[in-house]
Task: inverse folding
């Protein structure tokens, strides 16, 4: 975007929540230092623009890199964690990521994006210009959500070091919420074809989920490897809720319904009698969470969504057995019973 085009936003940008001293870096092959600085300025401009409607006070840094994979893998997160890997599956290849980091004991956000995305933002005639705006807005919305959680639930989301069934359910619920709220908040900058692109991928995932789960449970009868079947079924059904969150959040963000914007997926959901009640519970739970968003006082707000994740696993063939009550999160779920 040309400097002359940005001039009209001057007064608006004065209200941006993006910190004036946010750390910004750019690396890679550029024709000149001038072009690199121009592209960097374009990305910061859009982030400041999003900051007029999102709370971006918690953005710690913005990095643009040719070597996106390496930059993410080497990012200092402020705590020990496995190296991050960009998404690359049937839903697409990752172009940007909002990474929660710990800085002085508080959760902040580092945003990393591929150089290709930054180039597209710099050229309104680029075929990916609108998509790039949407992608960056989605990551900015993640930063907003991190800041809301930092303010309302300051201990939530910090690494716990635990690896148990209840942690998995809470993690799946949290990720589903994260993608829902980021998609809902960024929908105003969304591309028109978004729902049409997501719908067939979600249909493929849902239509094959039960068959894949049944195959996994059948295999359990022979190998008796509980951790293996648990991981397989978690992956199958957890992804359905998480990926659906992108679509549902976007649709709610534009004030529409799933039936209106994704009729094929809606029909398929209704046909899958094992999944339909869980999806209805999932969508209504997200709406209820959103109604109190920003004023949460306890991690218990995630409990209904955790229950929804558990219900989906049970519908898919894996049932958690409650052993005792946990003071913070309700059920502590340590044992798995695979239905065979």
Result:
């Amino acid at each position: 975007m040309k400097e002359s085009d940005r001039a009209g936003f001057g007064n608006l940008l004065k209200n941006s929540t993006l910190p004036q001293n946010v750390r910004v870096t750019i690396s890679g092959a550029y024709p000149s230092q001038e072009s690199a600085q121009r592209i960097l300025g374009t990305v910061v401009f859009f982030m400041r623009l999003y900051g007029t409607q999102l709370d971006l006070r918690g953005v710690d840094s913005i990095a643009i890199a040719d070597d996106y994979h390496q930059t993410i893998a080497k990012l200092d997160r402020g705590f020990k964690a496995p190296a991050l890997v960009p998404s690359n599956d049937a839903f697409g290849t990752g172009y940007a990521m909002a990474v929660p980091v710990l800085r002085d004991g508080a959760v902040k956000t580092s945003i990393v994006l591929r150089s290709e995305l930054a180039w597209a933002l710099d050229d309104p005639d680029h075929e990916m210009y609108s998509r790039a705006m949407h992608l960056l807005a989605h990551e900015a919305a993640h930063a907003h959500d991190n800041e809301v959680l930092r303010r309302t639930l300051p201990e939530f989301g910090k690494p716990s070091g635990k690896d148990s069934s209840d942690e998995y359910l809470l993690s799946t619920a949290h990720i589903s919420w994260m993608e829902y709220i980021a998609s809902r908040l960024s929908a105003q900058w969304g591309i028109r074809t978004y729902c049409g692109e997501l719908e067939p991928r979600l249909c493929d995932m849902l239509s094959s989920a039960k068959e894949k789960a049944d195959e996994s449970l059948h295999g359990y009868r022979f190998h008796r490897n509980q951790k293996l079947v648990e991981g397989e079924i978690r992956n199958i059904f957890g992804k359905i809720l998480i990926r659906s969150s992108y679509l549902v959040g976007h649709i709610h963000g534009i004030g529409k319904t799933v039936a209106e914007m994704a009729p094929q997926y809606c029909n398929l959901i209704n046909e899958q009698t094992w999944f339909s009640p869980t999806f209805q519970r999932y969508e209504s739970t997200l709406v209820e969470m959103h109604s109190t968003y920003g004023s949460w006082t306890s991690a218990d707000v995630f409990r209904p969504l955790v229950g929804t994740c558990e219900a989906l696993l049970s519908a898919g063939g894996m049932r958690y057995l409650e052993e005792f009550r946990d003071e913070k999160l309700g059920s502590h779920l340590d044992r798995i019973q695979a239905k065979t």
